[in-house]
Amino acid sequence: MNTTICENIKKLRKQKNVTQEKLAESLGVTPQAISRWESGAGYPAIEYLPDLAAFFEISVDELLGVKLSKREARREEIYAMIDRMDADNGYEPDAPDAIDLLREAHAEFPSDAKIGFALAKELCYERYKDEPDQAVLREAEKMLRHLMRQADDYDFKFKCARALAVLYREAWQDEQGYEEVANMLPGISSCREIFIADLFTGAHQKKAEIDASLLSLTLQTVWILRDYVAYELPNEAETWDAKLACFEGIIGFCKLIPKIIGGEAAVKMDSNIAVLYRYMATYHVAAGRKDETLNCLEDALDHVERVCASPQEKAGEHNCAWYFKHYLELDRYDPVRDDERFVAIREKMTAIAK
């Protein structure tokens, strides 16, 4: 045996999203033995090879690397298919071909977490149908719970929990199930960003790590506040001015952050400020305030232009101007559509959209 089997054990374990402890328990060895195998400090005895292969649902030859390259090429082909589907903004709820393809892929790689999650997510789209098949939704629930139990990666576990929580709330209006899933996750005081930004601040903590954590926390706060104001606060006409004042406060907060953190925070905040101005424009136009509507849209355009000029935005498939351009076509802007200021905003937005 050589290092190939060591690399394969580590790679296959991570693909299956299991810990060294879980693998060790299944084989009847110590976690330290698994660690030695994966590091190349030792090799599994021959009698463990069939059990290892069975655990990973492959042949012994594949475990030894004899056929792994061909199998891995097939796995990468499936990953590329999933990535293309995600790039198209998710799967269509009435696309049986997608389900069939993912079922076939899952049958080939039943322990692969990425493929399993892609299938579960597709099955969850059944909830959008007028008469959803409850068996399909329960299958998605079962898969997501299994993936959560097996997951060794917290971020992946969170993705599964989020999908499961949405299923309980939107498909079944099951608040008890939703709360059960929410309670599986730690509170914000236990998250990585708080750990980095708060627990070990000082001379020995890298500033770049602290800044990245603060930026992540700030972005989450802005998104939550924005949508809370927009969707959770009362939305009668008499409350609109109060909501507009809240949005202005959030914009002020967004403008402060780059002065504190610097770096890429400016681009991230410009993007959020543009969205906040767009939100404000919807209230102004609904209230019949033409000048205020156009002022907000011009402010949004100013921040969109800054974002689109940044290297980070150029790397994406579509820039933020592309999305804003479509929002400007909504019927809500009909009262200002023929105004020369609105025409100029739309033309500039179209010119920089891609």
What keyword list fits this structure?
434 Repressor (Amino-terminal Domain); 3 domains; about 350 residues
Sequence-ordered SSE layout with sheet pairings:
Layout (H helix, E strand, L loop, with lengths): L2 H14 L3 H8 L3 H9 L9 H8 L3 H5 L3 H20 L8 H13 L4 H12 L9 H17 L3 H18 L3 H8 L9 H8 L7 H26 L7 H22 L3 H22 L3 H19 L2 H4 L5 H8 L12 H13 L2
Helix pairs in contact: 2-3, 7-8, 8-9, 9-10, 10-11, 12-13, 13-14, 13-15, 14-15, 15-16, 16-19, 18-19
Q: Number of DSSP helices?
A: 19
What is the gyration radius calculated from CA atoms? 25 Å
Q: Please tell me what the overall shape is.
A: elongated
Please trace the helix and strand order, writing H or E for each element. Answer: HHHHHHHHHHHHHHHHHHH
Structural class: mainly alpha
What oligomerization state is this entry in?
A: single chain
According to DSSP, the number of beta strands is 0
Stretches with pLDDT under 50, minimum 5 residues: 90-94
Estimate the helix proportion, in percent.
over 70%
Biggest beta sheet summary: none
Q: Beta fraction of the residues?
A: under 5%
Beginning-to-end CA distance, first to last residue:
52 Å
What number of domains?
Answer: 3
Q: What value does the average pLDDT take?
A: 87
